[in-house]
Structures are given as C-alpha cells and as structure tokens.
Design goal:
With about 625 residues, the protein is of the alpha/beta class. The chain contains 25 helices and 17 strands. About 45% of the residues are buried.
C-alpha cells in the first residue's frame, strides 16, 4: 500500500503490509495502531501468560524503530528479548500471535528460525550490545552500510557484560545505535525544563546540520580555526554537563558514544526525530529513551513488577489465575526468613529476582541482611563468597538458567576458596512456556564439575525445608538446594523422608527405578500401575544427589535392570551408570533424560517428550521388562 492510499485513512494492522507500511503512516495513525497493539497484548497474555508490563512499555519505541529502520537489512537486536511481542506483531506474526508461548506456536523471545526479523536468540540479559558489536563488524567486512541497533533496558545495564560491550562498541566507527530503554526513570530525575529543552534541541536534525556547518567553517579558517572549534566544543560540553547533572551522559561519551536524550519513549514524533538524528551520525550513538512499564493497562502500570512475568489473568480485575503464595519459591522464601530469625549470620542475595525467588518475605523482616545486586549473577556469587569469608552464611536464590552465567565465579571464587555459600536454585528442571533459554536443565551437570560442591534435590515441600536447614547449618563449601517451578502436587509416601536416599523394596523384584526431585512422584505413580500389571519394581529416591553415597551403588548391584529418570541434561544418571560399571555391574542400565534443548510447551508436554511422565515411564518399563 503506497503513502497516498494510507494517508488520512483509519488504519488497522490487518490493512498493512508490515513492517514496510509503517513508514508511510501519519502520527495519529501510529497512535491508533499503538492502541490496537496494546489491546492485542493484554488480550493474548491474559490467556497465555507471559511478560506483559515490559511489552506494554515498548509499543511506541518498537513502532518507531520499524518506521526508521529497514529490518531485516538493518539489524534490531533485543536484550533479554522478553519485550519483543510488539516486534513480532509488526513483523508478520500477528496471525500467529494467539499461539504465543504455546507448543508449536511462536516463542516469547526472539528466535531466528521463526523470522528473519529476529536476528539473534536471547533470553538472558545484558548481551545485546556485544551481539550488536559483532554484527556491525561483520556487516562492515561484508561491505554493507546498514545499521545495527541494540535495544537494552536499564535493568540489563546492571549486568557487567553490557559495559564490556559498550567499551568495545564505542571504539568502533560503525553504524551502531544503542537504545537505552529506561522504564524506571532512575537515570535523569533532576533534569529541569531548560535542560530538557537543550537535550531535545540536540536531538533534532536541523540543529545537527547547523552544528556541522559551523564546525566545518571554523576548521577551514587557517591557524586559528581548529583551536576555536575545540574551545567552543569544550565550553559547550562543560556547560551541558553542569546543567544536566547527568553522569550517565558523560560516561557514555567517555566510552566513545554520542549521547542523545532523554526522549519520551511514548512520543512517536520525538522518537522519529531522535532516531533520524542518530542515523545521520554514522557512528556509535546511545539514545536514552524514558518509558512507563505497563503503559496503557492500569493494573500493569500500578504493579509493573507483578505484571513483569505473569500467568493467565482476568483482564477486568488484573487478578492472576494462580496465586504464587503456594509454590516452591514461596515455601523456600518463608522458610529462609524463619531460619534468619534464629541466626543473624544468614543473609539473602538475589540478582533482581526478589519476588520470583520468594525473597520478599526475608526482605520484609531483615532488610539489612537482604542484598539485591541487580542482574549480575557473576557478582552475586563472588559477593556471597566475600560475605562467607567474613563468617556470614549467604543464601543466593537464583533461577537455574541464570546460575549458568556464574560458572567461573563458583569455581574460582567459591570452590577454590572453600567458603560456605548456599545456592537456592529455583526453576530447576522444565519450566515450560518460556522455552529453551529458560529450561533449568544444566545446573546439575555444571555443579557436578565443581569440586567441594554438594547438591540436594527435594521432592516435596517438607523435604525442601529439611534440605535448606541442612545446607545452611550442617554443610560446608558450596551447597545447592534445587527445586522446580510451581506447586507441590506430589502423592508419594512421605513417611520416610530423609536427607540422603530412600529404597522402596518388594524383595522379589529385579527392576530398580531411580529418580529424584519432582520426577520421583511420576516414578512412584508408575510403580503402582506396573504392580497392577504384575510387573514388580523397586524404587530408589535420591535426596542428596551429589556426591552419591557409595552404599547406594552397592545396594543397586543386585538388580538385573536399572532405569534412571532425570529431569536434567544428563548428570547424575551418567555418574550413577559410571559407578555401576566401576563396581562390576553386568545388568541392563538405561537412563532417561533430556538430550537436547527443549522448546516451549506446557511442563507436562515437555516432560512427556523427554519420557518423564507417569504414562511414559509405564510404557518404557513394560517394554523393557519383557526383554531378556
């Protein structure tokens, strides 16, 4: 559709060829589309769950990016990626948007296999600038003159990798633009009216053209021209910095960036102007954009934290379908707060996930011993090691997928030092709809490779409390307690809970089923069904999964068939098998575990694909029990 066909018409998304037609829209038409996009976001996420507040806050910014850049020739790279819902709607996926985060649907994060407009897969924070730096260098080597744009939030700027990227990107002379999406307005609170006027003026093309013309004229004046130009620039910069009182502006410029902003991230005209100006520099530019998290949906604006990542909810009231009061995270958080009341050495550490990890209960009671270090998992581990070296007992609560970022710190700063830190590993195992980047499948094999490490994997709430007490008060060095997302719905017999292992023996079985954590309950239910079929199975439930008690292996050697079920990318099942072989085991050993990245789907569907549901376990054991 050409610009004349679009002009002055009431436009809906379905009328447009996206994203190309966005360039032909008038401002009022853009505002109408933004309203339509927000309705789609709220309606869809209320049914599928997902990241709502961050996406509502980035609607105008996303539309402005696609108006001023030509994706996919220009590369737009999103940090974390959970704010890309509008981007997906505007790049040919509106018809599929109802499948957001669903099995065989579209991902909640950028995914190159899904669209050529998704340049790089992301799910962890603070990576976009480094990726953009590499992409910009690659395009230069290919002889391309296109732009690379990194969109990063102020929260992700607390991660050290963002500054590594800035430090290198600023040295380049590339068409690289960093958009700092500041949705908490914490960077420029004291900018007055005159300062706002000057920053808006500085971001306009006419000002830029005039500035360049004056500089060119001065430089061409023999002898005195260059010193005069430098003097004017130095005076102007000093005046601006004093007026703005903006240390971030100076910091970014010291790194080699041209700083533009702050700009109202919900004013499309202002965004258009500053993005056109940024493009004209043909050099590294940082555009500072202020947005409101949850914009346009009152419940999300009022409680942006609650609507950051949310389950299905009622649109009218904003109330979520499932209360988080009853979950492994909340049980962990409440128990930790209870223990902290008995021992002043206990500290709680989080990497910007206070509510997600249940630490709000600790924070409310013992704020002076609660530390939120921002999105900086590496720092969190080394910071915890520092606390531990002074006699405190730090408990770092972190999602499994994010703990991966701190491997070196666990090895070098905690393990070698021999300090006692406790890891509360939340979202261990399958998490479901967040997909590959967030499944907690790798903490077990990772921790197994680190000396002086102990790992517990409780199977229910009561066991979680037992393991946390043990980890804090009786273990040494690195001790991890890992637990799944969601609620405890287990039905297995809890009369013999302990901190090591439990054998459930029939004394006439030659089949042993082994598991730990959430999956043990599936194995327990499968045993009941198999017994009804006349297939007798013994059970081994592990609680302390690493290191393994040697007597477990000795007790397992008498079975003809041992099947290990593990909600992980290998790990304990591999170790268990190796130890069996070392002890002369001659029987049939099978391990059932994840062997690939697991795409988004419900938790049950993901587990079914791996073979870890009750039904799949029964099917496998029936098949193997008849094989000689």
């Amino acid at each position: 559709m050409n610009s004349e066909d679009i002009k002055n018409k009431r436009i809906q998304l379905k009328d447009l060829s996206l994203p190309e037609d966005l360039k032909n829209l008038e401002i009022q038409q853009c505002k109408t589309l933004c309203h339509e996009v927000r309705n789609i976001l709220v309606s869809t996420v209320s049914k599928t769950g997902g990241h709502l507040a961050s996406n509502l806050g980035a609607v105008e910014l996303t539309l402005a990016l696609h108006r001023n850049f030509s994706s996919p020739d220009d590369k737009i790279i999103w940090d974390v990626g959970h704010q890309t819902y509008t981007h997906k709607i505007l790049t040919g996926r509106m018809d599929k948007f109802s499948t957001l985060r669903q099995e065989n649907g579209i991902s909640g994060f950028p995914k190159p296999e899904e669209s050529e407009h998704d340049i790089f897969i992301s799910g962890h924070s603070s990576t976009s600038i480094s990726v953009a730096c590499g992409v910009a260098e690659a395009m230069k080597l290919q002889g391309k003159d296109n732009y690379t744009v990194a969109v990063i939030g102020d929260g992700a700027m607390t991660g050290g990798m963002a500054y590594e990227g800035l430090n290198n990107a600023g040295k380049s002379n590339k068409n690289l633009i960093v958009i700092l999406n500041d949705n908490e307005m914490s960077i420029s609170k004291n900018v007055g009216s005159l300062a706002k006027y000057l920053t808006s003026l500085r971001g306009k093309e006419k000002y830029l053209h005039t500035k360049r013309a004056v500089e060119k004229t001065l430089i061409n004046i023999p002898v005195v021209g260059m010193p005069v130009a430098r003097g004017i620039k130095n005076s102007k910069d000093a005046f601006r910095d004093r007026l703005l009182n903006n240390t971030q502006c100076t910091m970014f410029e010291d790194m080699g960036f041209i700083y533009l902003g702050p700009v109202d991230g919900h004013d499309i005209e202002a965004l258009d102007e500053v993005l056109r100006t940024a493009k004209s520099y043909k050099a590294p530019v940082l555009v500072h954009v202020s947005t409101v998290k949850g914009k346009g949906y009152p419940p999300a604006e009022k409680n942006p934290g609650e609507f950051h990542g949310i389950s299905r909810f009622d649109i009218v009231t904003g109330n979520p379908e499932v209360s988080l009061e009853n979950s492994y995270s909340s049980v962990f958080g409440k128990e930790l707060a209870e223990l902290a009341g008995k021992d002043e050495r206990i500290c709680a550490v989080t990497a910007a996930m206070k509510y997600g990890t249940g630490l709000q209960y600790f924070c409310e009671k013992y704020r002076e011993r609660f530390f939120d270090v921002g999105i900086a998992e590496e720092h969190a581990v080394t910071f915890s090691a520092g606390l531990a070296s002074m006699g405190f007992i730090p408990v770092f609560a972190v999602y499994s997928t994010f703990l991966q970022r701190a491997y070196d710190q666990l090895m070098h700063d905690a393990s070698i030092s021999g300090v006692h830190i406790v890891l509360g590993i939340d979202r261990a195992g399958i998490v479901g709809e967040d997909g590959e980047t967030h499944q907690g499948m790798f903490d077990v094999p990772m921790l197994m490779s680190i000396p002086n490490t102990t790992v517990y994997s409780p199977s229910c709430y009561d066991e979680l409390k037992m393991c946390l007490n043990q980890a804090i008060f009786r273990e040494k060095n690195i001790t991890a307690v890992r637990y799944p997302r969601g609620c405890d719905k287990t039905v297995f017999d809890k009369s013999n809970l302990n901190l090591s292992y439990t054998f459930t023996e029939n004394y006439n079985s030659d089949i042993l089923l082994v598991s730990y954590g959430r999956i043990y309950d599936e194995v327990y239910k499968a045993q009941s069904i198999l017994n009804g079929d006349g297939i007798s199975c013994d059970l081994l439930k592990l609680t302390k999964i690493f290191p393994l008690d040697t007597e477990i292996i000795q007790k397992s050697l008498g079975y003809k068939k041992i099947i290990f079920f593990e909600e992980s990318y290998g790990g304990i099942s591999v170790l268990f098998g190796d130890l069996l072989l070392e002890n002369g085991y001659k029987g049939d050993y099978i391990k059932v575990n994840a062997d690939r990245f697991i795409k988004q789907a419900s938790i049950k569907s993901c587990l079914e694909k791996i073979g870890l549901t009750c039904e799949k376990i029964v099917e496998l054991v029936r098949k193997r029990s008849f094989l000689k």
